[in-house]
Description:
Layout: H1 3-19, E1 30-36, H2 45-59, E2 64-72, E3 76-86, E4 100-112, E5 115-123, H3 125-131
Parallel strand pairs: 1-5
Antiparallel strand pairs: 2-3, 3-4, 4-5
Amino acid sequence: MTIEANKAVVREFTRVFKNEHNVDGVDHLFAPDFEHHFTAPLSPGLDGLKQVGRTMNTAFPDVVVTEQDLIATDDTVVERSAAKAMNAGPYQDRPPTNRLCHWSEIHIYRFRGGKIVAYWAEVDLLGLLTQIGAVTPA
């Protein structure tokens, strides 16, 4: 696949999974041996990624993710994005705050044959947890 085709897959993932909140609508974008690289105790493969999506959609049901940068090589796409949402549901055993939150994200997608085979995410969780009052700034 081409670099532009891989970028299109990432944009479709962002649109469907993140902005339309349809965690079950992205299976066709992933290879059967897909691996996520989250450190939290999650199911392996696409099921684990969907767990993260469901958690975020419960806590932040109106989340909107906006692409800031999309950088690619032959088999890798890096996405820097900004997210905005109201904390309208429980998150990490904390009740909703109904506060508007903003955070940044960096996602790395590895491709093989036009499908996502690996995924890494770096999310500004400290900033997010501070905004919902779970962490007190120093």
